[in-house]
């Protein structure tokens, strides 16, 4: 019997246990999720349209890491009271699942919501620290004091969560600022039919790839330009003072190449032609 398999009788856990869905986390990313009876009740309440305000019993951190080569192929589980470490070897990097009691964390569970159930990028330094800490603990787990080991794992979870949360909040704030700047530039240049992602990126001094990342939650850069042009067109068509202005002229003001393209795009987005929309809004 390997010394890792021998851990389980000492610590009271099954050595065959392995993290669920080991393929769900990509290398270099962290997934934080809730678990336990409260989390299950929250899932049921959500399915029924209700809400549960109580925090989940446990928080789980999933991350890939380079693990000792002599781990059992089926993985191993070690537990120290409120903390549990489950590892599952892989070809290059294994999966690590660290579970800690929510009430033991100094950070409030509500503050962790930006991290929940999504792949959060983790800086290489933190990845290395996490992997090294896990590997060292696995190497000497059977000789450790359970109370000290529990504090060690809880501290490791706190370090990962706090660092990832700070980085994610900073990143989200930076993304929001960049996105607002890009949107404002688009609004200022809507009438220019040659407006492109390349021009927007140059104006903001960022790469096109970075610009695409700012709008990867919808229809992309071209979709945002198109949406803003349709919104501008709706404003112009609904203005009584511009009721005598031709559809072609409005299409040019909104940056469409020609009236036909404007009509097709507008009808697809609004469900009416520009002329019908104007007649309905102005009551004509």
From TrEMBL:
Keyword Transcription attributed: yes
Cited InterPro entries: AraC_XylS_family_regulators, Homeodomain-like_sf, HTH_AraC, HTH_AraC-typ_CS, Tscrpt_reg_AraC-type_HTH
Pfam families cross-referenced by the UniProt entry: HTH_18
Protein name: Transcriptional regulator, AraC family
Residue ranges occupied by any HTH araC/xylS-type domain in the UniProt entry: 180-280
Domain of life of the native organism: Bacteria
Keywords: DNA-binding, Transcription, Transcription regulation
GO MF terms held by the record: DNA-binding transcription factor activity; sequence-specific DNA binding
């Amino acid at each position: 019997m390997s010394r890792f398999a021998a851990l389980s009788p000492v610590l009271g856990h099954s050595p065959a246990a392995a993290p669920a869905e080991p393929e769900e986390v990509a290398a270099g990313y962290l997934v934080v999720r809730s678990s336990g009876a409260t989390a299950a009740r929250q899932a049921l309440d959500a399915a029924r349209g209700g809400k549960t305000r109580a925090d989940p019993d446990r928080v789980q951190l999933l991350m890939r890491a380079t693990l000792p080569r002599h781990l059992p192929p089926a993985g191993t589980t070690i537990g120290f009271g409120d903390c549990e470490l489950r590892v599952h070897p892989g070809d290059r990097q294994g999966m690590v699942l660290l579970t800690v009691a929510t009430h033991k964390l100094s950070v409030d569970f509500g503050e962790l919501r930006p991290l929940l159930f999504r792949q959060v990028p983790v800086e290489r330094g933190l990845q290395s620290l996490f992997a090294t800490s896990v590997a060292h603990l696995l190497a000497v787990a059977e000789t450790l004091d359970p109370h000290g080991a529990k504090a060690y794992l809880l501290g490791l979870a706190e370090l990962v969560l706090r660092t990832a949360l700070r980085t994610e909040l900073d990143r989200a704030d930076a993304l929001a600022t960049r996105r607002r700047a890009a949107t404002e530039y688009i609004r200022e240049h809507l009438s220019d039919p040659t407006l492109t992602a390349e021009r927007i990126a140059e104006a903001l001094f960022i790469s096109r790839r970075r610009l695409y990342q700012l709008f990867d939650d919808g229809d992309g850069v071209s979709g945002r330009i198109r949406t803003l042009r349709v919104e501008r067109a709706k404003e112009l068509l609904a203005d009584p003072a511009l009721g005598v202005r031709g559809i072609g002229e409005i299409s040019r003001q909104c940056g469409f190449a020609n009236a036909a393209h404007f009509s097709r795009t507008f009808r697809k987005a609004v469900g009416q032609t520009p002329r019908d929309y104007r007649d309905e809004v102005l009551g004509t």
